[in-house]
């Protein structure tokens, strides 16, 4: 099953993709994570992507399309994958359609105020990749899974979050109508629900408990 996770920054795409990848045994393909790894390693793609990601702008379509095409050709994607953060523009969606069939699009819905609350408190583990929130840490600054010191993503600073929301509305939101036209979209209403409750909605939307 090839699944797209669509939604504004901070809506919970990564949180639920991390869980579902374990439950379904298919990989999570996060273009954001792939780009952050390339930036850390200083690869040519990383050097090109750095300025865009730090300003909250989208990396050029051609760069991310090549990354995803190459990744989907790998053996571990033969039974499907969760595309977390790709596609993000209509040209990306059109390119994806030429090399993968999409079974479902999970659309995470969350208002701007909640997004800002979530992103300003998000902390990530640089060692094991866990994503969490300060509200779950009881004042600690270390990873509950592996003990490493948690960090804040550079693009979670307030001025960048504002631009990411603007970019989402202008360039990514049109994908909801694009995939609705293909009958693929399942909305997940995220506001005022716990991670567990939202995860149950995701599983139900995908028919996993039927
Ligand atoms: P990317 O890493 O994809 O960022 P994003 O889409 O902005 O999404 P986030 O990772 O910020 O949020 P999320 O929805 O995964 O939320 P999370 O689960 O962490 O992309 C980064 C950058 O890379 C882009 O800006 C762009 O430059 C570039 N890029 C990536 N893909 C690209 C593409 N296709 N084309 C071009 N450029 C691309 O949750 C957020 C917080 O909320 C966490 O703290 C979490 O613990 C908390 N939380 C989750 N669920 C709940 C809940 N139910 N209740 C309370 N808190 C919750």
Describe what you observe in this structure.
Helix 2 (31-41) crosses helix 3 and helix 4 (61-72) packs parallel to helix 5 (90-97). 47% of the residues lie in helices and 14% in strands. By secondary structure, the chain is an alpha/beta fold. The protein is globular, with a radius of gyration of 16 Å. A hairpin with a 6-residue loop joins strand 5 and strand 6 (131-133). It has a domain at 2-109 and 171-205: P-loop containing nucleotide triphosphate hydrolases (Rossmann fold), CATH 3.40.50.300. The strands form 2 sheets. The protein has a 5-stranded parallel β-sheet with strand order 2-3-1-4-7, sandwiched between helices. Strands 5-6 form a two-stranded antiparallel sheet. It has helices spanning 13-24, 31-41, 44-55, 61-72, 90-97, 112-121, 158-172, 174-180, 195-205; strands at residues 2-6, 28-30, 81-84, 104-109, 122-124, 131-133, 185-189. BIS(adenosine)-5'-pentaphosphate (AP5) binds at residues 7, 9-15, 30-32, 35, 52-53, 56-59, 64, 85-86, 88, 92, 118, 122, 131-133, 155, 164, 190, 193-195, 198.
Approximate strand percentage? 5-15%
Report how far apart the termini are: 15 Å
Spatial extent as radius of gyration = 16 Å
In this structure, how is the largest beta sheet organized?
5 strands, parallel
Give a list of the ligands. Answer: BIS(adenosine)-5'-pentaphosphate
Could you name the CATH class of the domain at 2-109 and 171-205? Answer: Alpha Beta
Q: Supply the CATH superfamily name of the domain at 2-109 and 171-205.
A: P-loop containing nucleotide triphosphate hydrolases
Mean pLDDT: 96
C-alpha geometry: globular
Structural class: alpha/beta
Assigned CATH architecture of the domain at 2-109 and 171-205: 3-Layer(aba) Sandwich
Helix content: 40-55%
**Unreliable sequence segments:** none
Q: How many distinct beta strands?
A: 7
What CATH calls the topology of the domain at 2-109 and 171-205 is: Rossmann fold
Order of helices and strands: EHEHHHEHEHEEHHEH
Strand order of the largest sheet: 2-3-1-4-7
